[in-house]
Amino acid sequence: MIESSSPPKEFRSHNADFRLRYAWPKAYANTNTPCRGCLDPLDPLTGKPLSKHFLYGTDSNQPVHYMIYGKDPWDIWYNHLEAAVAHLAMLMAQQGLIANTSTHIDDPANTAKLDVLARNFKDTFFMLHRNEWKARTVDEYQRQYDVLLKELGDFSVSNLDNTAYRNLQETICHNAVANARKLDAWMYGDEPPSSARKRMSLLYELIQDLKQVEGIPIPAVPTRYNSKPSRQQQLLDRIDSARSLPESLLRSACAQPPLQGQAGLMIDAGLRISEDAGLLFDSLRAIDTSQGTLYYVEITGQLSPSGKRTEITKTDSSYRTVPISYELAQDLVRYRQKLEETHGDLSLRLLCGQGEEDGFNDSPAKAAAWQERISKLVPQLLRQKDFSRALASARAYCFSQKAQDIALRDRSTCHALRRNFCTWLYCQSGLDTAEIYRQMGHSYGPLQKKAAGLTPEELRRMCLRKYVSPTLYHSANPLRYSVDGAQRMTEVPACEVILTLPTGTSIELTVEDSEPGNVIQITGEGLNVQLLRKDERHDMQYTYALLADEAEITILTKHKLFQ
Q1: Global pTM?
Q2: Given Cys at both, which of 196, 259, 302, 426 links 274, Cβ 3.0 to 4.6 Å?
Q3: Residue 324 and residue 286: Cα distance in Å, rounded?
């Protein structure tokens, strides 16, 4: 039977007046309860909606707005409204707002299902905590909240005690382990997966809010789940051999389909997979330097779980600029040129999209499918026998081969490429701590934030540091300069500098070397070089100097080459 009209907007029940409004939120369009009812008890004296201050005794002057969900307005009216009205009427009677016509009022919330209360309270719950979490965190918590609703189905308010809460925590953790990539077993007291920790935290906040804000007579509040990782787990967390992947194997892996092109940015630039999938064609930028055209990527967003690109990154520090290897950049440039010959300008389209017969497809479904495919292919590549044997042989400490092998396999994910890039930054890039944090997209207290971003000169120096450092795509490149008589210095430190000198000229070089064990060599045709140190020439103002023999050429100017 289909009703031809909507239920009454105002009605009287349980000796109290109520106002009921309906809405169809987009967020619930594809759920079993797409309709939302907003129920407000009315003040008997003024006829206006009661505030939470008068009904619950809180400090809020906002209307009660008790949320009820159903398939449609009539489903709410017939199947869900009575319990909500009886509960609010009971609270009004306790506050003396309406007459208590019976000697005893049983609160229907005592027998109400916890999942029903949680579903009706969802909007209010996230409104209460909206200032505590960032937008990205809210999206993740809303997904975990929906999962939690399914896990609350067998529990009612009246039987919530310590035993019930422990059973609920075990249910949450076992469900999380079943869907986890890094865990295959869990016992009470062990550290649970991150999704379980989020849901148990939401459960604690939910029970507190239902009790304090909604006035639900919950007999007991759960204690927070305290887990202590085992000594073995602590050792496994500290001995993470997957942080430095075998360079030779990674170099060959870069030529294989899973890591060719865009996916290679996770190795070469340390991008998170969501950041990699959220790159636009225009995110790849070029800049002219003394060594030619070099490239970098700008991270200004990421791919959401739904496949849509969002400008909201994981953290504020995730907005950053990262240089990439020239060889990888050239592959991406050629890929774009090939697509644009058929599909036109693709500047603002997703780089992970695909060219099809009817046009370029970078729809949310296509982008999400690309990210999911890479998320599966990369672990398969890293878990091959060659990688496993190489990583196992590089262990500094072996205490449980089986447990370490399992932990190594669990960490061989797309994020292992990002950890490997971080290790490369610390060990081979020569960058200071602040610059490493900036390129990784991590927050660093002493690092000053710049609203305008990097200057062109800072961009050039950043790209040149990448150019002179060895990566998986090239060995350390030398800096090449043509000396024309003017004073010149290298923009960044380098392992090798190649100078082109005009015929009949002389030059004085000053080399600043921060590593005493380094060997400095100067080679060339027709050169006579004398190495002078500070302790040999007391009148010199610099630490190390490479000067041409005065018998052959005349020193014209002093010049600092390395900084």
Answers
A1: 0.65
A2: 302
A3: 10
